[in-house]
Specification:
The protein is built from two helices and 15 strands. By secondary structure, the chain is an alpha+beta fold. It folds into two domains: 77 residues, no CATH class; 252 residues, no CATH class.
Length: 329
């Protein structure tokens, strides 16, 4: 009798497992077709009609039990980022209208620590309605939309800090990049966008960089070199006689940091008009220490390696977003 029950269990459970896997594959095939339709449609009507269907199918798929572990490898034209600790996964993409205005879309799956289950939130881009975007806490329903291309995790005092780096096509005049901290309310699953994790900048919730569509702006994360400026005069030693006005050369160090171009108006009198902002030539770095992102006090070198003298390469991390040839900046 026991042997019969075991065989019966196997006969029932295997088809059910196969059906779940098949359903996710079926969702993915539908989504791939709609995704390609979004990216190939020649008009706003075609793009946004396909996008609405894409949203509905993706929402159904992500509501499916255990969908968090399904990779969606075929969805290679949207961004899918998963935290290393499996706390959340975020899907983002962007669609332009015929006038060159980009609208961002997204979903976030995040774990509820009480139920140990993942819950789903759709993200609604309200960036045009947010008056002070760098100083407001936001949510899934009031989201400063972006396509995220980097997820940074840092730990301090038994807490994990998450930061997203994002790209926003904005409009025909300017582009935007975002440094977006995110956390989850009361150890639950509801996302909060924006967090006071910037040292000596207590009101800041995020960074928003807006610049000319013709500018080559970099916002990235990784090891970067910087000069420690000594400003010290050389001293006489047994083997070296210091010359007048001779100084000790700067010392080069490296640190893992978020680094980005400083921005300034391209021409005089354009202060505040972001469509005319371009990199000034200075690179700024933020490193994580004690639960805060602190600014590097010294000169971050505008190159990826200390020995390379011809400047650093622009960030290529947003190639996967819609119309790659138009999103190099």
């Amino acid at each position: 009798m026991k042997r019969f029950l075991v065989i019966l269990y196997i006969c029932i459970s295997v088809p059910l497992f196969a059906q779940k896997s098949y359903n996710m594959q079926g969702f993915e095939l539908q989504l791939e077709e709609l995704m390609n339709e979004i990216f190939s449609a020649e008009s706003s009507n075609g793009r946004f009609a396909a996008n609405e269907k894409f949203i509905n199918v993706l929402e159904d798929a992500l509501d499916f039990e255990k969908s968090f572990s399904y990779p969606f490898n075929k969805l290679d034209k949207i961004s899918i980022l998963t935290s290393k600790d499996k706390q959340f996964r975020i899907f983002t993409w962007s669609v332009p209208d015929d006038g060159g205005v980009w609208e961002n879309f997204g979903f976030i799956q995040s774990k509820n620590s009480a139920s140990n289950e993942y819950e789903l939130y759709r993200l609604f881009d309200k960036s045009d309605e947010i008056i002070s975007p760098e100083y407001e806490k936001l949510s899934d329903s009031t989201w400063f939309g972006a396509v995220y291309y980097e997820l940074i995790e840092q730990k301090y005092d038994k807490r994990t800090y998450y930061v997203l780096l994002g790209w926003d096509g904005n409009d025909i005049y300017s582009r935007r990049r975002i440094i977006e901290p995110v956390y989850f309310k009361n150890n639950g699953s509801k996302p909060v966008f924006g967090q006071n994790v910037f040292y000596k900048d207590k009101d800041r919730m995020r960074y928003v960089f807006e610049y000319s569509t013709d500018a080559n702006f970099t916002l990235s994360y990784g090891e970067q070199y910087y000069d420690i400026v000594t400003n010290q005069k050389a001293q006489n030693t047994l083997f070296h006689k210091a010359q007048p006005f001779e100084t000790v050369p700067n010392k080069t160090e490296k640190e893992k940091m978020i680094f980005f171009d400083d921005l300034e108006p391209a021409t005089f009198g354009m202060d505040g008009l972001k469509q005319y902002y371009v990199p000034s030539g200075e690179v700024i770095g933020l490193y994580f220490d004690g639960g805060k992102w602190k600014r590097i006090k010294y000169n971050v070198l505008p190159r990826n390696k200390a020995e390379k003298a011809d400047g650093y390469q622009p960030d290529e991390s947003v190639k996967h977003v819609l119309f790659p040839a138009k999103t190099k900046n």
